[in-house]
Amino acid sequence: MVKEHLGKSLIGLMIGYLLYKNFLLCISVAILFFVYSLFNKNQVIERKKTVLSVGFRDFLICLEPLLKSSENFSSAYFRAVADYEKMHGEDVLLLVLKSGAARFRINNSAGDVLNHIAEKTDIEDAYLFAGSIESSEETGISVIDITNHTIGIITEKIQLKNELLMILSGKRFEHILVSIIPAAILVLLSVGAGSYLSPLYETIAGKIVMTVAGIIFCASWYTGKQITSIEV
Q1: Which end of the chain is more exposed for a tag (fewer CB within 10 A), N or C?
Q2: Integer distance in angstroms from the first to the last C-alpha of the chain?
């Protein structure tokens, strides 16, 4: 997390140098990038939810065969948590699963435990599974069938997302390339024709022009990221 914030600050420092070639202004731009990275939690949350979704599917894969041989849901759950720990070790989801096991020990129902897991992970798949298990008594659907169905849904979502990522990877590369070209041209002009660009760096009007150019660049980068972002 810290490395990501520092990396974006470094990018801001380089952009600030390209725009102003002024130490104080470079630092100011780097600070702006750092603050934006610090408060922009969407990308971090999305990555975390993806990891949790894959982990939750693996937990259900561990749980499904145990439901067939266990006397009740709670005993299958305990054994599935142990199998999941062997598979993934200590991760974020394991802590949530263990907190669910603690609730089973104080005689909470399966629905309560699964709703607790859904609230802690905040992923759609966990809410779907919890709601299905809660309603299984009314619908008469087997818990094993519900688990199999949920595994299938999560797997299809992961596969679809991976396919979309492959399709969009070319567009994202084009977006990065188009974004880098103006900066590369500016570097070449700075090296080969520094006197030509000096009014942009030495006058107030020039700094205003470069600031506007920087805002347009950031806006185009953000727009491109929004266009190529996906949610399944």
Answers
A1: N
A2: 24
Please answer whether residues 212 and 155 qualify as being in contact, where contact means their C-beta atoms are separated by less than 8 angstroms.
no
Say if CB 99 and CB 116 are below 8 A apart.
yes
Helices (H) and strands (E) in the chain, counts: 10, 0
Backbone angle region of 94, left / alpha / beta, with phi > 0 → left and psi within -120 to 50 → alpha: alpha
Rounded distance between C-alpha atoms, residue 55 and residue 88, angstroms: 8
Give rounded-to-5 percent helix, strand, coil for the chain.
Answer: 90, 0, 10
Q: Give pLDDT tens digits for 144-186.
A: 888 888 888 888 888 888 787 787 777 777 777 777 777 777 7
Contacts of 158 (CB under 8 A, 6+ apart): 53, 54, 57
| Tokens 């999560």 found at | 154
227 φ, ψ to 5°?
Answer: -65, -40
Residue-wise burial string across 33-68, b where 16 or more C-beta atoms lie within 10 A, e elsewhere:
bbeebeeeeeeeeeeebeebbbbbbbbbbbbbebbe
Task: Tell me the C-alpha distance between 78 and 94, whole Å.
Answer: 12
pLDDT in tens, 33-63: 777 777 766 667 777 888 888 899 999 999 9
Query: Phi first, then psi: what are they for 159, rounded to 5°?
Result: -65, -40
pTM: 0.69
